Structure formats: structure tokens, C-alpha cells
Amino acid sequence: MSVANHLKLRAGLLSGLILLVILGLWYAATATSGATASAAGLTPAQIEYAQMMGQDPSAIKADGFPTLGQMGQTAWSHLSRPFYDNGPNDKGVGIQLAHSLGRVALGFGLACLVAVPLGFVIGMSPLLHRALDPFIQVLKPISPLAWMPLALYTIKDSTLSGIFVIFICSIWPMLVNTAFGVAAVKKEWLNVAATLEVSPLRKALQVILPAAAPTILTGMRISMGIAWLVIVAAEMLVGSTGIGYFVWNEWNNLSLSNVIFAVLVIGVVGMLLDLAFGRLQKAVTYVD
Amino acid sequence: MKTPLLQVERLGKAYVADKPVFADVSFMLDRGEFVCVIGHSGCGKTTVLNVLAGLDTATAGHVFMESREMVGPSLERGVVFQGHALMPWLTVRQNIAFAVKSRWPDWPGARLNQQVEKFVQLVGLSHAIDKKPSQLSGGMKQRVGIARAFSIQPKMLLLDEPFGALDALTRGTIQDELMAIVRETQQTVFMITHDVDEAILLADRILLMSNGAETAAGYKPGGIAEVVVNPLPRERTRATLHHLDGYYELRNHIVDFLVSRAKAH
Q1: Distance separating alpha carbons of residues B26 and B51, to the nearest angstrom
Q2: SS3 call for B38
Q3: Domains of chain A
Q4: B210 with B43: CB under 8 angstroms?
Q5: Of A195, A198, A288, which to mutate for an interface test with B (greatest number of B Cβ within 10 Å)?
Q6: Which among B81, B83, B102 is the nearest to A196, CB-wise?
Q7: What cellular-component terms does GO give this entry (chain A) (predicted)?
């Protein structure tokens, strides 16, 4: 136990050190760029002229790669007011995240509703497995964004199209894993259920489902990871709201500090989602 | 005359037509009788047991239980599987409750729990009732499997080499326990084993099965070569078994069969 704690402590220290090195490099890199972009050597008249020409030297510095201080300011301003709403192009990062998470939850939830029962049927029926396998194999490798034009054309609603894209990308890992997990349920457990004359529904819910749950959860975890990757790209395409749209909007504003902040937020939220599914997975895993 | 509990008539199983693994297997089981089957691997004894359990179908013959033809699995026949076949995500209590609930779906929780605890106690595992199978030793897991099969109070119990994976010491203990429970509950048992001493200790009758083989006169399917009635007194114990008169004659007879006759030449 103390050895494990010792290792944990050392790993934590090393992580902190790596973070410090990265921040140090960032500081050094932006400090020199700030020096070249400074207005040193220009007379006030030259500066004013440059400003009138739309080439404000100090503004160039502000729009370039942010320094650590600017980054901290941006982060603080977002974190202190995450839920403000000043119209379509100026919403707090919390609101944008909520839009993205809502889309992911809807698309992912719908995919669950389709993939788990369908995976059950495919896993239990070798005939259906063979019949549907070619379709799954062809549809699975399609980039979800490739569906976007078709979705926009048929659904005619950008938000629903985004949800559809999440749905279509989440469905495959869950479907394939559920089918595999169900097909791999040990014969002896099914034999136990058979000799006890267990009804098909009870067998499905109390024997096959818990037996296949770890595999199904693995599929869900993979799906959630993919959905979170795809939602950012999808929102860049369809726009209006969401963390992906926020990134694209701030790129158009040339506000790199906002972009960097959003990128970090996307990473942290993705990690939290994965952690949550990891917990869930642990809860249903059994030692055989 | 009373009808036998179980009647097996000319049972046969062929995976390849004209070359059945076994054929013409006929025997009867009376209520309260303990019958063991001994034979080499591949003679089809597990198939016979699976047919009796309703998990497999024979290609020929019939099985009657209380004069009615048997179709498919039934709660009237409890099975103890070769591997314990416990569900690892359930505790001992939940595993047995699963079986009891299947047998008596209308029982209230208290009655169900009472039945579960009674049978867990019967195999001496009350202290481990809320543990998961992964926390139990091999012998304890097999005890739970036995308790599960007994808990539904079937008319007949089918055991497929239940102690095959256990070490000799544990096996001996559980054999004693099984014998005590069977004597107490008057259970009818059909059991497969590889162990000659186990068969002599437990069985009232021992069915010796031979493997199918090519002979000069053509293919000869496997089947019951001989039925040995155990002449030893029923109140025998494992500790004194080998001191009983007739023990060695019986043992030598079965071993001779396994060595020289079980695999037809």
C-alpha cells in the first residue's frame, strides 16, 4: 500500500514538473514574440499612422499567440461568468458546452436505444448476424461527417442534423460490442437458465444482460469518445451554438486565447465523460 | 408393481449417420436410487446426461419420466454442471435465489430467503452466503452448485462429474456431504464419474459404458456394457469403505472393465 502511494506521489510530482516545463516554454516563446511585435523604435506619429491603416502594433501583439498572462485573464473571464448570454455570437462557455453535451446526450441516447436491442438480436441469431454483417462492415468505417450533406438535405434542420451525426457515429461500436458480448455469453449459464425453465425475457434481462454488460459498456465508452470528437467538428460545420462553433467563431475573431481555452475545456470534458463511463464499466464488471 | 421414476429406452446418438456414438442404451431409475455411470472419455456419457437434462436431443430412443415422455429441460430435473456454472455477478445467496425464484415465482421474499438459507446451510456455507463466487475456493463453488440443484427440490438430480476439477482431499469431503444430503432427502441421483472409488462409495448401481469402435465384424457403437449392482451395505463411509468385504472384488471388476473391455477392440 505504501509502495503504491509512493509511486502515486512520485508520478504526481513528475506530472507537475512536466506542466511547469510546458508553461515555461510557453512563457519563453511568447516573451520573444512579444518583443518583436513591440512598438519600440516607432515615433508616436508612425504608430498613429499604423493604427489608421488597421495595423496597430499593440493590437497585433494582442491578437497573436497569447502570453501566459493573457491566457490566465481569458480563462478567468470565462470561468467567472460561464453562463452569460449576449445574443447569438456571444454566449458564455458554459452555455456552449451545455448545447454540445445536450446534442451528444440525445444522439448517444438514441444510438443506445437502437444499438443495444439490435445488438442483442444479432448476438443471439447467427442468421441475422451473417445477414447484417456486410451492412455493418460497410457503414462502420464511414466518417460521420460524410453523412452531413445527406442529413441536412433530408432533415432540413442543422441542429437535428448534428444530433443525427452523433447518432450515426455512436451506433457502431455499441452495436458490434453488444452483439459480440451477447454471442460470447457462456453456454453453461444459458444451460442453467434452460434447466430452470427461465422465461426468455427473464433470461435476457437477468442472465445475458449482466453477462454481456462489461462488453456493452466498453462499446458505450468507445462510442462516447467518438461522439465527443465528432460533435466539435459537426458544430464547426452547422454552427449557431456549441463548443465547436465557439472554437470556429473565435478563430474568425482571431482570438487565439479563446480558442486555446476552448480546446482545453473540450479536453477536460472529454476526460470527465470517459472517467464516468470507466466508473460505470467497473460497476458492471465481474470476476469470473 | 410401481412404475420406475425414469425409464430410458434404446437411446442412441449419431453425429455421423450409421456410426452412432452410442446406441441401444436402456436403463431404469427407481425413486431414491443413486446410479453412477463410468466410462472413458468419448463414450457418450455426458450426452446421455444432457439428453436426460433436456439440453441435448437423442437421435434414437425415448426417455419417460413417471410414464410420460420427456421433452426439453424441466424444473423436475436439477443439474449440477461439470464447471460450477455459477453466475459470477451474483452472490451465493442470489445465485440460489435465482433458482428458487424460477421454481416458485410466487413465493414472498421471506419464504424464498428461508429456502435459500436452508440449502446454503445444508452444504455448510452459511458464513459465505453473501460472497461472490470469485471469492470462494473451487470446492466451495461446487458446493454452491450442489445447493442450487437441491434447492429447487427436483424429482431427480443429474450430476456431470461434479468433483472432476477438485483436489482429492476436497473431493472426499464433498462426497461425504453429498452422500449425507442424498440419504436425508431421499433424492434420486444420476451421476457421471471417472473415479471408481467415488462410484463405489455413492452408487447403488453402476452403469459401465463402452466406447464405440471398429471391429472385424464392422462398427460397434458404444453403450452400456454391464450394470453392476453395488453389494456393499448402504450405510458405508469413505473412511471404512476399503475394509468392507467385497470392496476389492467390486473395485477390481470395474477397473478390469475400464482397462480391457471399455474400449472395444
Answers
A1: 13
A2: strand
A3: 2-65 (no CATH), 93-284 (1.10.3720.10)
A4: yes
A5: A195
A6: B102
A7: plasma membrane
β-bridge mates for residue A90, sequence order? none
- In this structure, the number of other CB atoms found within 10 A of the CB of residue B146 comes to 24
The strand pair at B6-13 and B22-29 is best described as: antiparallel
Cβ count within 10 A of residue A176:
21
Greatest alpha-carbon pair distance for chain A in Å reads 95
> Cell 458404444 identifies what position?
B222
In this prediction, residue A60 has a pLDDT band, given cuts at 50, 70 and 90, of very low
Are the beta carbons of A192 and B85 separated by less than 8 Å? yes
Least Cα separation, residue B232 to chain A (angstroms) = 34
Q: What is the interface pTM, i.e. ipTM, of the complex?
A: 0.89
Pick the residue of B52, B57, B89 with the most A CBs within 10 A to test the interface with A by mutation. Answer: B89
pLDDT, residue B115, reads 94
Mark B111-135 as b/e (b = at least 16 C-beta within 10 Å).
Answer: ebeebbeebbebbebeebbeebbee
- Residue B245's Cβ-count burial label (10 Å; 0-12, 13-18, 19+) is exposed
Are B54 and A207 an interchain contact pair (Cβ–Cβ within 8 Å)?
no
What pLDDT is stored for residue A39 in this prediction?
55
Superfamily name and number for B30-56+158-265: P-loop containing nucleotide triphosphate hydrolases (3.40.50.300)
Numbered residues of chain A with Cβ closer than 8 Å to any chain B Cβ: 186, 188-189, 191-192, 194-198, 206-207, 210-211, 213, 284, 286-288
Task: Name, of A242-251, B22-31, B89-98, B237-246, the range with top average pLDDT.
Answer: B89-98
Q: Is the pLDDT of residue B264 over 70?
A: no
Residues of B in Cβ contact (< 8 Å) with A188: 81, 83, 85
| Closest Cβ opposite residue A198 in set B85, B102, B134 | B102
Distance from CA of A139 to the nearest CA of B (A): 34
CB B85 within 8 A of CB B103: no
User: Which of A188, A197, A287 faces B102 most closely, judged by CB atoms?
Assistant: A197
Where do you find CATH 3.40.50.300 in chain B?
30-56+158-265
